[in-house]
Design goal:
Number of strands of chain A: 2
Shape of chain B: flat
Order of helices and strands of chain B: HHHHH
CATH architecture of chain A: Orthogonal Bundle
Distance between the termini of chain B: 24 Å
CATH topology of chain A: 434 Repressor (Amino-terminal Domain)
Radius of gyration of chain A: 11 Å
Oligomer: heterodimer
Structural class of chain B: mainly alpha
Largest interface: A-B, 16 and 14 residues
Strand content of chain A: 5-15%
Number of strands of chain B: 0
Structural class of chain A: mainly alpha
Distance between the termini of chain A: 8 Å
CATH class of chain A: Mainly Alpha
Number of domains of chain B: 2
Shape of chain A: globular
Largest sheet of chain B: none
Strand order of the largest sheet of chain A: 1-2
Radius of gyration of chain B: 18 Å
Helix content of chain B: over 70%
Largest sheet of chain A: 2 strands, antiparallel
Number of helices of chain A: 5
Order of helices and strands of chain A: EHHHHHE
Chain lengths: 64, 139
């Protein structure tokens, strides 16, 4: 699964730590999410979408 | 919110738990050694040896309870998944190896002699390896 998290985060001038704090996860989790190494749970995906005021499918895209 | 402070607290809890596990395994191993020595030397009666064997395992039970509380309450979801994958790795590797060892030994093939401490440490080491593998997959 790919995602636009790095673009969304940097557009707001946030560090990975800032995003981690806002999402109530560790910075390592944000790093793994951004690199596509970890797919979030549904509750976390909803929290991310709510934070950026977008739909989940606007942020996460299925891979090949 | 999981602030940097709470992240540090979680890491600290993890380090404390790791230390407790090391001490708990050491306690179980020392208990095992004492029970065997007591039996060979005739130091303690049967009921005292059984009591010693049970008491030596209590720290591991405490560590297990703390482990579940940490896993369910304080670790974030990716770390939870990594720990669970590590446990799954340990179980799925340990069981076939243990079955193979038992069968080969029963069949009379040469196999290295394994003492209770070896058997106790094997799942712990496999779990550490499993966690390391799961962690590396996400870096």
């Amino acid at each position: 699964m790919t995602n636009t998290l790095p673009d969304l985060r940097t557009a707001r001038g946030w560090s990975q730590g800032d995003l981690a704090e806002a999402l109530d996860v560790s910075r390592q989790t944000v790093n793994a999410l951004e690199r596509g190494k970890y797919d979030p749970s549904l509750p976390l995906a909803f929290r991310i979408a709510k934070l950026f005021k977008l739909r989940i499918e606007d942020i996460f895209h299925p891979g090949d | 919110m999981k602030t940097h402070a709470s992240e540090r607290e979680a890491a600290s809890s993890g380090a404390t738990l790791y230390g407790l596990y090391v001490l708990a395994i050491a306690s179980a191993l020392v208990g095992n050694l004492l029970v065997r020595l007591a039996e060979e030397a005739g130091w303690l009666g049967s009921s005292s040896r059984i009591a010693l064997a049970v008491v030596a395992v209590i720290p591991l039970i405490v560590a297990a309870v703390m482990f579940w509380r940490l896993l369910r309450g304080e670790l974030d979801e990716m770390v939870q998944r990594i720990v669970l994958e590590g446990m799954a790795f340990a179980l799925t590797v340990y069981l076939p190896l243990a079955a193979l060892y038992v069968n080969l030994r029963t069949a009379g093939a040469w196999v290295p002699r394994l003492d209770p401490p070896d058997l106790l440490m094997a799942p712990a080491l496999l779990m550490a390896g499993g966690i390391l593998l799961a962690w590396r997959r996400r870096q």
